[in-house]
């Protein structure tokens, strides 16, 4: 999603439960692998939070946490603010409409930096590099990133992603990119196929319900193509979580 998109597209996405592939059980599973590294009252940021599926899952799992949720979409931010108020946790969730490439967050303040399905917008390595100074000395970064999972890639899948996201890397390449900007990757976890269905199914239900009728048909055609590519992918790509910590100073 780019800043130049038709505002109607953001309205369309804001009505959906999530804006990218993911699922609370997977978020919590990854969180459980690093939870013992967090202080009792963790200070967290969720970069590219969308309407906050992840923000709210983290807030529920870590009831003593405070979370700064950042997204450049006004409508997504508003929706998350409203939902946090409805849940009675607005005092713990600060929603800021801002560019995650220049987030208004103090250096060395974050115990946990989370970002699902969003870092690609500014580049995975660039995001890790820009966000590293925000981490507290024992802070952890967890990013999910669309990743090549196998060398057996159908030709139409390669053609699609070469145009859509030429920088998409393999797990090994992404671990190297993280190392290049000063991190040790502690763990990786691949999102199961069902978490992609959680993203696509509500989109196409909304299209069927006529909720995209006012949008440029090219928008829904592109989404349909993206889903067709996913279905034809034969496991060649997927979203991978990378949990990383800044390398110890040598
Ligand atoms: C694919 S969505 C993922 C949203 C959410 N993390 C989720 O998993 O449902 C990517 C999000 O990143 C946001 N985004 C993209 N570029 C951004 C930027 N430079 N600064 C802030 N937010 C950005 C978009 O508005 C969108 O909400």
Overview of the molecule:
- The chain is α/β, with parallel strands linked by helices and about 250 residues long.
- The protein has a single domain, classed as Rossmann fold, CATH 3.40.50.150.
- Helices cover about 40% and strands about 20% of the residues.
- The chain contains nine helices and seven strands, in the order H-H-E-H-E-H-E-E-H-E-H-H-E-H-H-E.
- A seven-stranded mixed β-sheet has the order 3-2-1-4-5-7-6, sandwiched between helices.
- Strand 1, helix 3 and strand 2 (about 65-70) form a beta-alpha-beta unit.
- The longest helix has 16 residues, at about 195-210.
- The radius of gyration is 18 Å and the shape is globular.
- The mean pLDDT is about 95.
- The site of S-adenosylmethionine has 23 residues, from helix 3 and strand 2.
Topology:
Elements: H1 7-14, H2 24-34, E1 43-47, H3 53-61, E2 66-71, H4 74-86, E3 93-97, E4 110-116, H5 124-131, E5 135-148, H6 155-164, H7 171-180, E6 183-190, H8 193-208, H9 217-231, E7 237-246
Parallel strand pairs: 1-2, 1-4, 2-3, 4-5
Antiparallel strand pairs: 5-7, 6-7
Helix pairs in contact: 2-3, 5-7
The structure holds S-adenosylmethionine (SAM).
Sheet with most strands: strand arrangement = 3-2-1-4-5-7-6
Helix content: 40-55%
What's the overall average pLDDT, rounded? Answer: 95
Number of strand elements:
7
Mind summarizing the main beta sheet? 7 strands, mixed
Helical region count?
Answer: 9
Which CATH class is shown?
Alpha Beta
Low-pLDDT residue spans = none
Number of domains as seen in the coordinates: 1
The 3D shape can be described as globular
CATH architecture: 3-Layer(aba) Sandwich
Element-by-element helix/strand order: HHEHEHEEHEHHEHHE
Structural class computed from helices and strand pairing: alpha/beta
The CATH homology group name: Vaccinia Virus protein VP39
Strand content: 15-25%
| CATH topology group | Rossmann fold
> What bound compounds does this protein have?
S-adenosylmethionine
**What is the CA-based Rg, rounded?**
18 Å
Distance between the termini: 39 Å
């Amino acid at each position: 999603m780019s800043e130049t998109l038709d505002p109607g597209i953001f309205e369309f996405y804001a009505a959906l439960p999530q804006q990218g592939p993911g699922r609370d059980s997977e978020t919590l599973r990854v969180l459980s692998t690093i939870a013992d590294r967090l202080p009792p009252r963790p200070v967290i940021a969720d970069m590219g939070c969308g309407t906050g599926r992840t923000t709210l899952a983290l807030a529920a799992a870590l009831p003593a946490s405070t979370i700064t949720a950042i997204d450049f979409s006004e409508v997504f931010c508003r929706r998350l603010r409203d939902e946090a108020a409805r849940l009675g946790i607005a005092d713990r969730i600060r929603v800021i409409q801002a560019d995650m490439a220049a987030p208004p967050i103090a250096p060395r303040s974050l115990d946990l930096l989370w970002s699902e399905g969003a870092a690609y917008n500014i580049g995975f390595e660039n995001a890790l590099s820009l966000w590293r100074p925000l981490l507290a000395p024992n802070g952890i970064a967890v990013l999910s990133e669309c990743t090549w999972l196998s060398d057996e890639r159908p030709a139409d899948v390669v053609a699609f992603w070469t145009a859509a996201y030429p920088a998409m890397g393999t797990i090994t390449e992404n671990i190297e990119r993280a190392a290049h900007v000063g991190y040790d990757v502690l763990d990786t976890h691949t999102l199961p196929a069902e978490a992609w269905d959680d993203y696509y199914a509500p989109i196409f239900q909304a299209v069927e319900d006529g909720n995209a009728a006012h949008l440029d048909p090219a928008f829904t055609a592109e989404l349909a193509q993206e889903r067709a590519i996913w279905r034809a992918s034969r496991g060649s790509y997927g979203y991978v979580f990378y949990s990383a910590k800044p390398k110890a100073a040598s």
